[in-house]
Amino acid sequence: MARRFDCIALVISAVASPGGAEELGVMTARLDGVPHEWRIHALDRPGGRIVTAGFRQSQWLAELQIQGYDAPRFAGADGMAVTVRFAGWYSPGAEPLSVDILHTPEGLGGPYWTSVGASRPAQVEIVRFDIHGSMGEVELAFTGELCRKPSLSSAVDPATCVEILGVVETRLAME
User: Domain coordinates of the chain in residue numbers?
Assistant: First the structure.
């Protein structure tokens, strides 16, 4: 699943530009006690709209994916992603199957800070999730431990980890 996020992020960074970006929401977090903020965007491009927050539902899996960036330039940007998966149909109060948090402070070239492989799993609490046709709104809180990974193919360094505590409030595409 992490590979799918990487592919989505690479596509966004290849085609996105700051012109015409619509801000959908904000993600704020404290990384090792230091405050950070990322914006969630939508861009109208030839061939369709790119939205950095979406919810996908199939009969086997529900997936909420939110990507925030320090600016709507994407390529080379400081990014933060939260992906939450649920088995079957999503319903309020459902326990997530998995929660992945990924921070790319220097863009997609690395290093990466990920909750995958950390000593304690990431957690999320969905405070509000409303659906309005093809768009929705979500408010959630997340917490976890992010460990350094120098490159996509390298192992996580369990000795180099930071705590993260954050919130998201955004509109999102219902896919």
Answer: 2-174
